[in-house]
Design goal:
The chain is mainly alpha-helical. The chain contains six helices and two strands; from the N terminus they run ααααββαα. It is elongated.
Length: about 140
């Protein structure tokens, strides 16, 4: 009797486990039998398409350049890696004019409103600026 009970419990656990897996398994569209939708996060997964957000790119660029401790040139290059010419146009448009103090090198009192092109020219060394100018010739 004890052996029969163990087999029944084992089979029940197996059936419940397989059933739970099949009910929550998502198809290629991200939907499961239960109707839940899988949320994709841009982590470089080859099965997902990264979502381009000009607002996020502008925030990262501003963060990289508006520092008391100096510009994070690596962050600027990483932020603009994989960005197309059209996407850079959207970033440039969203940037608009931001206050920049040319004496201190960041946004502070006494600056003037400058476009992204001028911010990048002021903040990057020649090598990085030329690299970006070759990549985005319509805007830099």
């Amino acid at each position: 009797m004890n052996k029969k009970k163990t087999i029944i419990i084992g089979v029940s656990v197996l059936v419940l486990g397989v059933g739970g897996y099949l009910l929550t398994k998502t198809n290629k569209n991200g939907k499961s039998i239960l109707g839940g939708k899988k949320k994709f996060i841009d982590e470089g997964d080859i099965n997902t398409v990264p979502i381009f957000s000009p607002r996020q790119k502008v925030a990262l660029l501003y963060e990289a350049m508006n520092r008391y401790s100096g510009t994070d040139e690596t962050l600027i290059v990483e932020t603009l890696t994989g960005v197309t010419q059209a996407q850079f146009g959207a970033i440039n448009k969203l940037w608009g004019l931001k206050n920049y103090n040319t004496l201190l090198g960041y946004n502070t009192v006494g600056g003037s409103k400058l476009p992204l092109k001028k911010w990048l020219r002021e903040e990057l060394n020649d090598e990085y600026y030329i690299l970006l100018r070759k990549k985005f010739p319509l805007y830099l």
